[in-house]
From TrEMBL:
Gene (UniProt): bamD
The protein's name in its UniProt record: Outer membrane protein assembly factor BamD
Its job: Part of the outer membrane protein assembly complex, which is involved in assembly and insertion of beta-barrel proteins into the outer membrane.
Keyword annotations of the record: Cell outer membrane, Lipoprotein, Membrane, Palmitate, Signal
PROSITE patterns hit by this protein: PROKAR_LIPOPROTEIN
UniProt similarity note: Belongs to the BamD family.
Annotated Pfam families: YfiO
Subunit structure: Part of the Bam complex.
Gene Ontology BP terms: Gram-negative-bacterium-type cell outer membrane assembly; protein insertion into membrane
Length: 278
């Protein structure tokens, strides 16, 4: 009888403890664990289409983690890099893209992975008034795309972006050079302008750099060097405003008569720059 009277109390206590989870035999299971690689990939794709890039990137990463040897793992890895890039999480994008290149170096998508790495640096290029570390990283990454994957569809765009990044870097040198020139530090200014002329001669800043060299050399009394810079400017950019400014400067400054300026500059260029015997 005592056992029977205690039975309701035992059952009530057991039910209460079970309700608190003490004797629960079922644990919460992440539904993604029961999904196939394709299902996880498609879930991530839906998240990406809905604009949840960061969430999608993490879901794509789950394909690689849970199904590393499936056909979907490789696709998910490059999509993870893309999703992180779209989310502007550039560090994670580079990490995923680099892992793809490390795992699948011969795959056709390796070029795209390298391009994503380049874009993460290119999109972070600062204005010319700031440190240009990202510009240098972008140039190196873009060069990698062009040299390793010259036949890919990304090489051409990388080449265009390379020129723009190079122009940006030249702009930084010009900014510093102008700063020195305005303060009368002509030697320091010349060194900056020469970097543009020698190392960034294909950029849009070259004509101005040559004109600024004319200004700087004339300020130091180095007339021959000023004429040489003006001759290079006249030969390569004869119709530019910068050449007109330099032409006016050397004629008004008495370095050469206006009547013979054109022929003199041409002769200087052919003799001094081209090494012709006239």
């Amino acid at each position: 009888m005592m056992r029977l009277t205690r039975l309701p109390l035992i059952l009530a206590t057991t039910a209460m403890l079970s309700g608190c989870g003490w004797f629960s035999s079922e644990e919460e299971v992440d539904p993604i664990l029961s999904m196939s690689a394709q299902q996880i990939f498609e879930t991530a794709q839906t998240q990406l289409d809905e604009g949840s890039e960061r969430t999608a990137a993490r879901t794509f990463a789950e394909v690689e983690r849970l199904h590393p040897y499936s056909q979907w793992a490789k696709r998910a890895l490059i999509m993870s890099a893309f999703a992180y890039y779209e989310a502007t999480d550039f560090e994670e994008a580079r990490s995923s893209a680099q892992r793809f290149i490390d795992f699948y170096p011969a795959d056709d998508e390796a070029a795209y992975a390298a391009y994503i790495i380049a874009l993460t640096w290119y999109d972070q290029i600062n204005d010319v008034g700031r440190d240009q570390g990202n510009t240098i990283e972008a140039l190196q990454a873009l060069q990698t795309v062009m040299s390793r994957y010259p036949g890919s569809e990304y090489a051409r765009d990388a080449d265009l972006k390379f020129d723009l990044a190079l122009d940006h870097l030249a702009g930084k040198e010009m900014e510093i050079g102008r700063y020195y020139l305005a303060r009368g530090h002509y030697t320091a200014a010349i060194s900056r302008f020469k970097v543009v002329v020698d190392d960034f001669d294909t950029t849009s800043h070259t004509p101005e750099a040559l004109h600024r060299l004319v200004e700087s050399y004339m300020a130091l009394g180095l007339d021959d060097e000023a004429l040489k810079s003006a001759s290079v400017l006249g030969y390569n950019f004869p119709g530019s405003d910068w050449y007109e400014d330099s032409y006016a400067l050397i004629t008004s400054g008495g370095l050469v008569n206006a009547s013979e300026a054109e022929s003199l500059l041409d002769r200087i260029y052919r003799q001094v720059i081209l090494g012709e015997q006239l």
